[in-house]
Amino acid sequence: MEKPEIKDDPLYQLLRNEDVEAFNAQRDTLDTSQLRSGDYRGRDLRKLNASGLDFSDSYFRNSDLSGIDFRNTNLEGASLLDAKVSGTYFPPQLSAEEIRLSLATGTRLRYQN
After folding, report:
1. 46: closest CA among 107, 90, 74, 87?
2. What is the DSSP letter of 35?
3. For burial by CB atoms within 10 Å, which of 2, 17, 68, 88 has the most?
4. What pLDDT was estimated at residue 102?
């Protein structure tokens, strides 16, 4: 497990700057490997196309994740403390209790086998 960090990667910086529209337009043409272990605290990421991305070990504290479809996204080890998740889809490997604990206490998400 890695500690989340702020990176120089162009796709990562688009999300840090809350430019979700530009991120979605460029995500299929650039390397997405630097998104994992990222610090996304307090960001408005609504309308993010997260399908197939790896956000493992990332921090989403106080982020707005409303309406994002994470069903095909790796969130293992991510922390969701106080994030907004209205209408958000989560991977089937995550139980509702696991998501609730992460939202309430910041625990890292653990996938069920």
Report:
1. 87
2. G
3. 68
4. 98
Exposed e or buried b per residue across 63-91, where buried means at least 16 C-beta atoms within 10 angstroms of its C-beta: bbbeebebeebbbbbbbbbebbbeebebb
Owning domain of residue 63: 1-113
- What is the structure's pLDDT at 112? 87
Domain count, the chain: 1
Integer Cα distance of 98 and 15 in angstroms: 25
- The CA-atom distances, in angstroms, between 109 and each of 7, 11, 37, 80 are 22, 23, 13, 8
Calpha distance 77→9 (Å, rounded)? 21
pLDDT confidence band for 108 (50 / 70 / 90): very high
Residue 76 sits in a domain whose CATH number is 2.160.20
Q: Per the structure block, which two tokens stand in for 91?
A: 């991977």
